[in-house]
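The authors assume throughout that readers already know how a fold can be written as discrete tokens. The format is easy to grasp once an entry is in front of the reader. For illustration, here is how one protein appears when written out as sequence plus structure tokens:
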Amino acid sequence: MKLMEQLSENALKALPYLFEAWAHAHQLPPDGSWRTWVILGGRGAGKTRAGAEWIRAEVEGATPLAAGRARRLALIGETYDQVRDVMIEGDSGILACSPPDRRPQWKAGERKLIWANGAMAQAFSAHDPEALRGPQFDTAWVDELAKWRRAREAWDMLQFSLRLGQDPRVCVTSTPRNVAVLRDLLASPSTVQSHAPTEANRANLAPSFLSEVRARYAGSRLGRQELDGILLSEVEGAFWQAAQLAERQVAAPPVLDRIVVAVDPAVSSGKASDACGIIVAGAVLQGPPQKWQTYVLADRTVQGLGPLAWARAVLAATDEFSADRVVAEVNQGGALVENLLRQVDPLVPFRALHASRGKAARAEPVAALYEQHRVHHLPGLAELEEQICQMTPQGFQGQGSPDRLDALVWAIYELILGPAGRMRLPRARML
């Protein structure tokens, strides 16, 4: 407060435009040598403001007429309207961020933004990559690259046009979506990135917005992407898709007729070991089998624990949900799982399941139940959802073993597919 009182009237007027003084860390460009700065963030995380302020910093000099580093710029959005409405004229766009004495002139008919110091930015639509073939630039701001339909073509054309100056640079602001062009860009050694969830900018967001979207999407795969700003793995041809899983989420289950805890055991321990998949699911078994419904209640998967420790985690989940039975695949561990569980609780109800088909073949009938709207997810299953979205007919496309997915498959087999005779596996036997 004392500092504010000491500032002159002009200094106070200038303070809102000194972005580096009050910006979040993810909104400031990283130090060092780089060609592309990618800002990934959740909805409302301040990505647009960061992009607009970066353009200002590149264009403006010490005085309104002094030249900055950038002289010829490209502003690229999915459509011309989005460039105009978001990047230029939006609440966090270039015009709103610029002080009155340095505010550029927007010539809508020419699709050009012109500064008093001679710098000029042209607006482009990603739907028209060929428009980038002729011009050349020293700077570019690309907004929502991951949602462009012709992203690869537009991005490639931009790279050929960035050939002016000593160090052409690009700022990419985007909500993360798993598309090849973004994956490749992030893997490039000349790319740096910043990341922030929606909450990072909560001071500038309506409290009701945050509470509503968190209540609805927290813990879901869609929430991790759109709110946490995390780039999730989604594989072409996968049995499950993120949008499908979002549609299957429910706030709470109905009264359940049966609950099981399914285990995909870890055969080793330590930080580098596979996880022990522990999934809790229940079912409503009223009416004919075609009407039965499954609810995935919780993911209690653990990693890096010794055998007795994960056995205790299984039994803790069994007690927490008053499960009727524990089921586990025993192909690899033989009687190990049952022996471990009975060391802790000799009376645990346990069924051993034996697989005669591969993981993908076992997963496909489960995916079919999702398509029939017969499997539902409670909130908090984001890691499970991310893993199952990487299972394809050719097998698991993610890293490591699909521990959570395997446990999910066994849970649904025990609840619905086995009793209904829909999975062509040998009949499970009691041990």
